[in-house]
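It would be a great kindness if you could assist me with a short task in structural biology. A protein sequence and the structure tokens that stand for its backbone fold form the material at issue. I should value your view on which stretches of the chain appear to form regular backbone elements. The record follows directly beneath this note.
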Amino acid sequence: YTFGPTFRAERANTRRHLAEFWMVEPELMFASLDDIIELAEDFIKHVVGTVLMERAADVVQLNTIQHFVAQQRSDKERAEAHYLEGALVDRLTQLVEQKFYRYTYTQVI
């Protein structure tokens, strides 16, 4: 696999557009889509699990910051961000322990 910076050339000045990010590109021969999805899930779980084990204090600090920022939001913004409720450590632990949901194209449409 390769791991390195990626840059986008198109112009975009929005908060949700990344002009630069780091990307992992695994090279898999004879892999099915399910194999690739499984690899991505395992990779994410490994990274998050390692962060929880080795940088737990930092995750707790992020949770404190998230809670402070949430208090500064309006009621409408808080309602729109309801999916962020709960302790960060608990949500990340749940991510590592549970199987990811998988949907077919037909189910999504």
Observations:
- The helical segments are 33-54, 56-72, 75-80, 88-97, 105-108.
- The longest strand covers residues 2-7.
- The chain has a mean pLDDT of 81.
